[in-house]
Structure prediction request, 134 residues.
Amino acid sequence: MAMFLMFFISCTNEELIPHDPDGPVLNQGRVVFNVNTGKNMVYTRASADDEQAIRSLGVFIVKPDGNLAEGITRFYEAKALTDKKLAVSIPVDIMETPGVKAYLVANGPDKTQCDGLKTEQELLDLAAVIKPEE
Prediction:
């Protein structure tokens, strides 16, 4: 469960999902988070049990050069969820940059680890050693 959600988006001007997902998409699991940059919208899904097990979330925005964007809050406790939503402020200039990626890691690194990461590779290396049973 440690890395219950990890997703990746490329924030170009392409509209990935222009409206709410249809029934078959929703039947794959609850819509837990969506990323809406104004240009793109991406949904991630999980079971209700997995959603209830969230204790913390790490949000990581990766610039095209492979470095993590600075000045964005990376660590959130579950209590930061409002109506099962997490508000994350990401500067428009970053999200409108072609090739930007976003990762969401649940129950993974703590605040110190999140803040200490500098590159996408460091994030992937850390995520690879997270044990699901934790």
Remarks:
- Helices lie at 23-26, 48-52, 92-95, 111-116, 120-128.
- The longest helix spans residues 120-128.
- Strands lie at 30-36, 41-46, 56-62, 75-77, 101-106.
- The mean pLDDT is 69.
